[in-house]
Amino acid sequence: MRGRPTRASGAQPTDRRGAGSNRLRFDPRLIVRIRGWQVAVLVVFVVFFFVVLVFVALFFVIVVIVVIVAVSVVVIVRLFGLDDVVIIRDVIDEVVDEIIIDEHLVNEILIGNLLELHDNGLARREGTSRDIGRVDGIRRPA
Q: Same domain, yes or no, for 92 and 43?
């Protein structure tokens, strides 16, 4: 086998830098002079970002806690039959009106979707296409 002999380190005889010559070296030209006002602007932006992040996180945590507490109060009160008390019933009605979608709105959405299905001819199952067009027993005109 003809070729150049290698040293024990694996470096070629002509490699004057020795073993580990393929290491990355720090280039001093990469050093950039950072002025004091640049540091101040960077610190202000970082602090502002984290303050906004904390406030947004707190807002979402508070909203989630309020929703969980409100829904659990409604469920507990309804389970134990305490909704006969006038004050509690008023509070529950306010919470339900604010947080949970109104039942009539849900019915309107469902009926509207069913009517749209009927109008589009997508409701072809047996016994449904005749009944979908009826709202409160009145046939909806085509």
A: yes
Interacting residues of 123 by C-beta distance below 8 A, sequence separation 6+:
114, 117, 129, 132
CB within 8 A of 133, min separation 6: which ones? 115, 118, 139, 140, 142
* In contact, 12 and 4? CB cutoff 8 Å: yes
Taking CA atoms, 107 is separated from 61, 111, 115, 118, in Å, by 31, 6, 12, 16
Q: What pTM value is reported for the model?
A: 0.34
Segments forming the whole domain that contains residue 142? 102-142
Task: Report which DSSP code applies to 134.
Answer: E
Write the CB contacts of 13 (distance below 8 Å, at least 6 apart in sequence).
4, 5, 6, 7
Lowest mean pLDDT segment, chosen from 17-21, 57-61, 77-81, 109-113? 17-21
Quick check: 101 and 109 in contact, CB under 8 A? Answer: no
Q: Does any domain span residue 107?
A: yes
